[in-house]
Amino acid sequence: MARKLGEQLLSDGVVTQEMLARALERQKETGQKLGECLVRLGLDETPVLRLLAQELKTRFVSTAKLAQAPVDSALLERVPVRLAEGFDFMPLRLDEAAQSLYGVMAEPQRERAIEEIARTVGVARVLPFVALRRSIRAAIRKHYYSDSQAFEHMVDDDACPHCGAPTAPGDFQCARCELLLVRSPEDLPPRDNVSVVRALLAAPDRTGSRGVPSPPQQEKTRISSYAQAVAGGPPAVPAITGGLDIAQKTLTPFEAYILSFVDGRTSVADLARITALAEVELRAVFESLCERGITRVSNGEEKRAAVAKAAESKRAPPAAPAPPAPAPAPAQAPVREKVPPPEAKVADPADDILQRVVRLERSGRIEEAVELLEGGISRLSNPAPLYNRLGMILLNQRRDYTRSTKLFQKAADLEPDNSVYMMNLYSVLSLKADATNAGKKVKKR
C-alpha cells in the first residue's frame, strides 16, 4: 500500500515538517484534500499531482496545461454542463472509434461517478486524469460559460461551485442556492428526527434543521404586549391557513419549528407543554404568524354562542299560530326564470395538507406523510423548488436515495434549465451508486 501523501512528500523532501503541519491544520478546518491545502499554502502542485496520479494509476494535468487545453464545441454539447459541474469533471477529448471519453476529475477514484458520466454521455468508458478541483472549475467556466478570465480569478475550493457562496467543512447543502454539496455517503450528516414539515418550511440551512432553534429577538419583544391575552378565556387553537404556499415565504427556523406541531386541533396551552416553551411566547409567535396570513387562532366563542342561542330558543314559549290568509283569486302565475343556487365554496385540500402531515408524523406514519406532501406539492403552480427541497430532506434525514432521485428528477424535468436541480440529480445518483456498491468503493485519501 502506498504511503500517505504527506509522508511521501516529506520523505521526498518536497515539504517541510512545518508546512505539512500547517496543511494538516488547514485540512481539519476546511475539509479540503491535503494536496489542495498544500498547494494553497504555496507548494508547487506538480509533485502533489504526480504522487496522486501514481497511486490512482492515471495521469495528471497541471493548472497551466489545463488553462491552455483546447476543447471542441461539439464535445461540450455532448457532455452537459450540469454533469460537469455536478462531478467536478471537465471533458477534454472524445475518441468516437473507441467510444472513450477523456477528461480531468478532482476525484478520479469515484467509480460510481465515472459510471454515471459514461451512461449519461453514452460512451463505453471514461478515462479521467487527476487535476486540482479549483482548476477544473475554472476550466468549466472558461469553456462552458466563455469566461476568458476564469483562470486569472479562480474561485476558492471552499465556495459553492454553483453560486460561489461561502461553505464550511461538513456542509450538506448551499444555503443560498440549495445545491447538494456532499460527495460521498460517509459525508452525510448524522440522522435527526426533525419533522419533514419543519425542514420544508424553514429557510435552507447548510447542515439541515437540527436541534431546537432559539426564538428570534423580534418575537421576544412582542411578548409583553400580548401577555394580557394569556390569563383567562377559552383555549386558543391555532391552525395553518396558508397551505403549502407558505413554504415559499420567509420563515425563521423557530417559526418553522412551532408550525411543525400545529395540527388544527391542539391548543396553544398544550403546544406549550409539548414544546416546553412558555405559553406567552407561543402566543406572541402566533400573533406574528396571523398578521402575515399564515395561521389563524380560534377560541371557540362562535361555537359557544351558537349553543347558547339554541338553548334559548328551546326555553322560549311557542308563538301563537297566525290567522289563515284568505284564498287568493285564481290567476295565471307568471313564469319565472329559475335562478341556480349559489355554488358552495369548495375547500382547497392544500389549505389543510400541512396539518394532516403533522398529524401523520406525530402518529409515526412517516411514509404516508411524505406521500401526502408529495401529492400536495404536485398541485402547486410552481412545484419544482419544493420537489428539490423535499428531495434534500429525504436524503439528509432518511437516506432515501430512491425517492430523492425521483424528486430531483421531477424538479429537473419541470425546469430543465435550472442547473442546481440537474446537479443535485447527478450527485444523488452517484451517492446512491456508492451506497449500494460499498464493497467496490476505493478508499479516499
From TrEMBL:
Stored Pfam families: MshEN
Ranges where the Type II secretion system protein GspE N-terminal domain occurs: 64-148
Region (Disordered): 301-348
Stretches with biased composition (Basic and acidic residues): 301-315, 335-348
Domain of life, per lineage: Bacteria
Biased composition (Pro residues): 318-331
Name of the protein in its database record: Type II secretion system protein GspE N-terminal domain-containing protein
